[in-house]
Amino acid sequence: MRALVKTIHRVARDTRAATAVEYGLICALIVLAIMAALLALGTVTSDMWNNVSTKVQTAS
């Protein structure tokens, strides 16, 4: 019984799980920022190539 209480006390003091959760949240925020940047870049690039296509078609 005493060993069980010591184990529970040791687990309660352990902060590695909280640190892992924090790192997971930071990683998720970084991924969301990258996705937003790629989405914006994709829209700008698509508009650019559509503009090029239109100009080539009107030139010929």
Low-confidence stretches: none
Mean pLDDT across residues:
88
The SSE order reads HH
Main sheet summary: none
The tally of helices reads 2
* Portion in strands: under 5%
* Broad structural category: mainly alpha
Shape: rod-shaped
Q: How far is it from the N-terminal to the C-terminal residue, by CA? A: 88 Å
Rg, nearest Å: 26 Å
Please tally the β strands and state the result: 0
Helix content: over 70%
Number of domains: 1
Record keyword descriptors for this entry:
single chain; mainly alpha; 0% strand; transmembrane; transmembrane helix; Flp_Fap; Flp family type IVb pilin; membrane
Report on this model:
The chain has 60 residues and is mainly alpha-helical. It has one domain. 93% of the residues lie in helices and 0% in strands. The chain contains two helices and no strands.
List the helices and strands and how they pair.
Layout lengths: L1 H12 L2 H44 L1
How is this structure best summarized?
Helices cover 93% and strands 0% of the residues. With 60 residues, it is mainly alpha-helical. The chain starts with a helix and ends with a helix.
